[in-house]
Design brief:
mainly alpha, elongated
């Protein structure tokens, strides 16, 4: 139909009103080719100096992403009006040229033009995007002096500015003075509180909106779902899910993706998977949310291979977050074959994958018993962090290479990296399983004295297990004598006493185990 209209514009007697209508159709449908054809006809028929057509062409090129050509047309206009200036300011803002938009706004003011509500709205959006509150407040000063101070569109733009710049008190004052509110103003407040980490205030604002008779849109519901997901609030997620269905958004792909992500983060993977299967258009974002959720649930019976096949079939952009989550599943299920395929995908799709990806590969290969492959990934890395070293140390420990784990610690320290509590836990585990009692005892002492790390119950448990296995029962008991260890730690010492026939330490441990305060602790 649009093509027929363009052909008609070429063949019938020319009028600028007809060109305006066709250009608007090109704007609405983002029809670049047809819009350029109409532009050629406008020039050929001498209408290029018409201010209305010139403005419509600026809007057309701005909406189709060519802000540079829009500006060139603006500069060539023999006359301009406030709509022309607003079109150019709005075009810059829509295309991300926020500084240019504000310079254009300043030029407009110097040229003596008075802004309308749309001019103010576009200029304020530019300030908001730049998080430039001071310039926004200057524009607000102009608004207060003019006739748009109570305009809903302008007030919403001001609300958005103050809330996104972290000035929630000012935003709240503006909100309270509004004689009428729409969903945009409610969203500005809800998102503003959420951005400042004030989830409670954000939820309260949403409740006020519902009590006030406001009807949430996709943006409102998406914001509340993200907050509920962050706090693991499954009850709220269920309530919003019900509201999504009541408002007819059940088959909205974006909201379904937000629901899927929220359920996944709350641990309800059955519902998340159900939603994913019902999505009319599956995308990489929802797929990543699903896989990430499954990667945090180690007891899932999901067929990871089937999901992986689906990923390759979808042929969408593959990123490191998704592949790291897939590798986490492979590591927890020791799915070496799938892990190798994902490694191949990473090499193919991510030319320079980051530290997180390499760390995930080390973890996957280590847990699958392929410590040489893990070491190969480690050696190929140009940059490493504490997690990298700790992952390989843990891999050596789990595969019985305690001496190699200790050597890796020495190299790590030589390169100036400081081990953390997880590193030491992995090392103690490695020493315990390799029978390196002296090394483990020295390691524990260095952890406390050299690195000032307070040992947790897991560190104590590992050390006690290490000492008890070797028969160093007095040392093992002294480690926990002044603390209140769990029965599992005391049980390890008692097991050593039984093995080595140490009745004296055994009696001390038995006495503590019979103490009522340990009765509610599990062995």
């Amino acid at each position: 139909m649009l093509e027929d209209a363009v052909k008609l514009a070429v063949s019938v007697p020319k009028s600028y009103s007809r060109y305006l209508k066709i250009l608007q159709a090109c704007v609405n449908s983002r029809a670049i080719k047809h819009g350029r054809m109409v532009h050629c006809q406008i020039i050929a028929n001498g209408f290029n100096s018409n201010v209305h057509l010139g403005t419509k062409l600026i809007i057309f090129y701005s909406r189709t992403g060519d802000a540079e050509l829009a500006r060139r047309l603006f500069d060539q206009m023999p006359e301009r009006n406030i709509v022309s200036w607003t079109a150019m300011i709005s075009g810059y803002t829509e295309n991300g040229f926020y500084e240019n938009a504000l310079v254009m706004f300043a030029n407009m003011c110097r040229a003596g033009y008075k802004a309308n509500q749309f001019t103010y709205g576009s200029a304020l959006r530019a300030c908001t995007s730049l998080r430039c509150l001071s310039r926004g407040e200057q524009i607000q000063g102009c608004i207060v002096k003019g006739r748009f101070v109570e305009n809903l569109f302008v007030k919403c733009a001001l609300l958005d500015l103050h809330s996104k710049c972290g000035k929630m008190e000012d935003a709240s004052y503006l909100f309270e003075t509004m004689s009428a509110r729409d969903v945009v103003s409610w969203n500005a407040m809800i998102n503003g509180f959420a951005a400042q980490g004030l989830s409670k205030d954000s939820f309260l604002m949403f409740s006020s909106m519902m009590r006030d008779g406001g009807i949430p849109d996709r943006i409102t519901l998406g914001s509340i779902l993200r907050m509920a997901a962050r706090s693991g609030d499954l009850v709220t997620v269920n309530q919003i899910h019900k509201l999504v269905i009541e408002l007819g958004f059940e088959f909205n792909n974006s909201l379904t993706g937000s629901l899927l992500d929220a359920y996944a983060k709350c641990g309800s993977m059955d519902i998340a998977y159900y939603l994913y299967r019902r999505m009319p258009e599956k995308d990489i974002i929802s797929y990543t949310a699903l896989i990430t959720g499954f990667s945090h649930q180690h007891d899932t019976d999901i067929d990871s291979l089937e999901l992986f096949k689906e990923l390759k079939w979808m042929q969408m952009g593959i990123d490191d977050v998704l592949l790291c989550s897939m590798l986490s599943i492979c590591a927890d299920t020791a799915s070496l074959s799938l892990g190798r395929q994902i490694h191949a995908l990473a090499v193919k799709h991510l030319s320079n994958y980051d530290i997180s990806m390499s760390n995930s590969l080390i973890d996957m290969y280590s847990k699958s018993g392929e410590i040489e492959d893990a070491r190969r990934v480690f050696d190929e890395m140009t940059e490493r962090n504490v997690i990298t070293w700790t992952s390989l140390i843990a891999g050596y420990g789990k595969n019985g290479y305690g001496t190699d784990a200790m050597k890796l610690l020495e190299t790590m320290e030589e390169e100036g990296l400081k081990p953390n509590d997880v590193t030491f836990l992995s090392l103690l585990f490695a020493c315990s399983h390799a029978g390196l009692t002296n090394e483990g005892w020295k390691l524990f002492s260095n952890m406390v004295s050299k690195y000032d790390i307070t040992p947790g119950e897991k560190h104590l448990s590992c050390l006690v297990d290490l000492l008890a296995r070797k028969g160093w029962l007095e040392e093992a008991y002294n480690v926990v004598d002044s603390s209140k260890p769990g029965t599992s730690i005391l049980g390890a010492i008692l097991g050593g006493c039984t093995k080595y026939g140490d009745m004296s330490i055994g009696q001390l441990v038995a006495t503590r185990l019979l103490d009522p305060e340990y009765h509610d602790k599990s062995v």
